[in-house]
Amino acid sequence: MTEPTAAELVARARALAPLLREHAAKSDADRRVATDCMDALGEAGLFKISVPRRYGGNETTLRTMLDVSAAVAEGDGSAGWVVALVNVCHWLAALFSERAQDEVFADAQPRVTGVLTPSATTRKVDGGWRVSGRWYFNSGSWWSTWAVLGVPLTDDAGEVVDQGLVLIPAADFTIEDVWFVTGMRGTASNCLVAEDAFVPEHRVMSVPAAIEGHYQTPFTGESLYRSAFIPLLTLVLAGPQLGMGRAALDLVLGKAARKPISYTFFETQAESVAFQLQMADAATKVDVAALLCYRAAADIDDAAVRGEYLDYRARARVRADTGYAVQSVVEALTILMNAHGAGGFADTSPLQRIWRDCNVAARHAVVSPAVGAEVYGKALLGVDEKITPLV
User: Fold this and answer.
1) Tell me: domain 229-381, CATH 1.20.140.10, correct?
2) Among 91, 106, 87, CA closest to 165
3) Contacts of 137 (CB under 8 A, 6+ apart)
4) At what angle do helices 17-30 and 6-15 cross, to 10 degrees?
5) Residues in contact with 251: Cβ distance below 8 Å, sequence separation at least 6, in sequence order
6) What is the pLDDT of residue 3?
7) CATH number for the segment(s) 112-211
8) N or C terminus of the chain with fewer C-beta within 10 Å?
């Protein structure tokens, strides 16, 4: 069977837009993406774009991961976020040992979710660790088959000697329903809880080593899994934002030829020069966000193909670019809501849901514009002081 091209995968995502829009309000109210939508996304192969070909996946590129999640988010931001997060966790799983990969991808429809924060305790035992912890907030929790989770790694004396990521099957954790939020409600980003779960050594990976590009996978010829660790994990979060920005712009433009500007002589918004300037500004901000993301994705993808690991300054720039891109979309949404008018905040308007989803997603700590800018500024100036290891 011929593998789908990147364009075909994006086309599949766009073809699902009517279904996603139809269920978006219900997904928002139910605080989980509708089952019909999750099933359709799975049938379209959109959860397998970062699964190795060895396991029937598409093993695409970071650029394709961005484009697919953006296309899904044009229909529903929460669905786009779940697609992005599950796929990036599949990428993470493919960095582990071959034995761990065999276990995770034995499922024909895997749904790996994850949280990198090491909010757990571990105890070294024969052959691995005993792990207990609570991980907030795990996007896609209800559909998780495995989870990749941050933990402190201890030695026989109980001293923390490393920070790790571990793979835990769904049978070994429970879900605490805690995701009551303003936006991105459908992502079901609940808390995962594990109590004294045994994690064998082959399902453990060192985070500091991964940050420097040292992965456990023996399949070193697969370029996608040579991609720079933190840059990929960071940039992938911008994909849904790009889709939501485009969706909001299309909605406002689509109504401009019929919607008047209240308390003015303009019978349609499209007649107003002020409105025209606002649309140009918003569209340019969405375009700038996409161009920054695509440049960063090209740098990561191209380096991976060459078998090179991005240097610190390039990695720092990706963090800054991602934060800037996400903030640009937030600014575009503000302009669009202001220009469209108060009607955009009606419960029946999809604009208010996009606005909520965009603003909540933009507050993910890894895409903080301020942190990204400081990291990059220090790198540009050669300042050695580090404010985060996640670069």
Assistant:
1) yes
2) 91
3) 115, 178, 179, 189, 190, 191
4) 60
5) 340, 350, 351, 354
6) 86
7) 2.40.110.10
8) N
Instruction: Pick left, alpha or beta for residue 59 (phi over 0 → left; psi -120 to 50 → alpha; otherwise beta).
Output: left
For the chain, how far is it from start to end, CA to CA, in angstroms? Answer: 39
| Amino acid sitting at position 215 | Y
CA atoms within 13 A on the CB side of 251: 25
User: Does the pTM of the predicted model rise above 0.85?
Assistant: yes
SS3 62: helix
User: Rounded to an integer, what distance in angstroms lies between the CA atom of residue 299 and that of residue 295?
Assistant: 6
The model's pLDDT over 351-382, given as tens digits with 9 standing for 90+, comes to: 999 999 999 999 999 999 999 999 999 999 99
CATH 1.10.540.10 spans which residues of the chain? 6-108
d(CA 95, CA 219): 9
Helices (H) and strands (E) in the chain, counts: 13, 8
- 190-203 pLDDT, tens per residue? 999 999 999 999 99
Question: Rounded distance, CA 250 to CA 156, Å?
Answer: 58
Q: Which CATH number fits domain 6-108: 3.90.1300.10, 3.30.70.100, 1.10.540.10, 3.10.20.90?
A: 1.10.540.10
